[in-house]
């Protein structure tokens, strides 16, 4: 039953305008921004050091400056692109997911659907799974557009990661964005309000909610020190732990957080928040009236 419902939802989503508008926005946000920054860096010239140790300004009149076409690694490029939680990408996808989920209530579709004795738990799980798939699609589009842009501009990389490291890094970045989106969708489904859901998507996706929680927890920690231990497990703080693939998968002291590798900390944090969001949504909507 859930598979048929999900297939119907995907069909309606792909044949709708919101899906392709956000997909196009993701491409412009990633590839367009990267190209613009490179062109601006090339046009203004780049400071370089010649063989005699003298700092000079590169002549960029013939195209992109050499330094503008050089990046540390593929994973560093993906990190510096603003992909992940607390970013425009997460905010766009979270807003789209909330609109897709809440459209059923506005159109009365969910009332007719559940009148056919479909389980509320199945329907809620379907909405959450659809949001996760929608997020994974847009993150994949963002990664592909960034890599193709670098290829088209002739960008070179100082370090080359192994395929396994690169895929693991992309997987963890995707999981991070899914976490932010799932939190926003869970709040929307619990409140059952499109306006509240969109506001939550903007605040959560852009990282504003994380900053506010940091302030609140810091104030409470002044009276209850143990509360300060919770702040490293906020998704908005977790995404700041790694800047590139080397830091994320390093086994040295620089790649350790709370006594564990950074990637393990991030994985536990993201999975924990996803489970919490799904559990809260299913629990609240288990016997709730659909009206």
UniProtKB/TrEMBL annotation:
Species for this entry: Bifidobacterium ramosum
Lineage, uppermost ranks: Bacteria, Bacillati, Actinomycetota, Actinomycetes, Bifidobacteriales
Protein name: Uncharacterized protein
Bilayer-spanning residue ranges: 20-43, 87-107, 128-154, 166-191, 198-224, 262-284
Keyword tags: Membrane, Transmembrane, Transmembrane helix
């Amino acid at each position: 039953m859930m598979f048929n419902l999900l297939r119907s939802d995907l069909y309606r989503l792909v044949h709708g305008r919101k899906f392709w508008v956000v997909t196009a926005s993701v491409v412009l946000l990633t590839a367009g921004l990267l190209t613009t920054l490179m062109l601006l860096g090339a046009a203004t010239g780049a400071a370089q050091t010649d063989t005699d140790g003298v700092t000079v300004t590169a002549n960029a009149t013939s195209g992109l400056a050499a330094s503008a076409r050089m990046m540390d690694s593929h994973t560093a490029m993906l990190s510096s692109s603003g992909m992940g939680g607390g970013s425009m990408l997460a905010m766009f996808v979270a807003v789209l997911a909330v609109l897709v989920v809440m459209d059923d209530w506005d159109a009365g579709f969910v009332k007719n659907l559940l009148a056919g004795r479909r389980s509320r738990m199945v329907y809620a799980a379907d909405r959450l799974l659809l949001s996760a798939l929608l997020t994974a699609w847009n993150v994949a589009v963002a990664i592909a557009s960034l890599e193709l842009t670098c290829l088209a501009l002739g960008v070179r990389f100082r370090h080359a990661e192994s395929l396994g490291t690169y895929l693991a890094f992309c997987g963890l970045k995707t999981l991070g964005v899914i976490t932010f989106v799932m939190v926003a969708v869970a709040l929307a489904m619990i409140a059952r309000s499109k306006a509240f859901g969109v506001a939550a998507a903007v605040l959560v996706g852009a990282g504003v909610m994380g900053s506010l929680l940091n302030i609140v927890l810091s104030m409470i920690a002044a009276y209850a020190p143990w509360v300060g231990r919770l702040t490293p497990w906020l998704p908005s703080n977790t995404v700041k732990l790694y800047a590139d693939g080397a830091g994320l998968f390093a086994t040295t002291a620089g790649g350790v957080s709370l006594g564990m590798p950074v990637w393990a900390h991030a994985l536990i944090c993201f999975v924990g928040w996803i489970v919490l969001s799904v559990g809260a949504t299913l629990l609240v909507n288990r016997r709730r009236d659909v009206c």
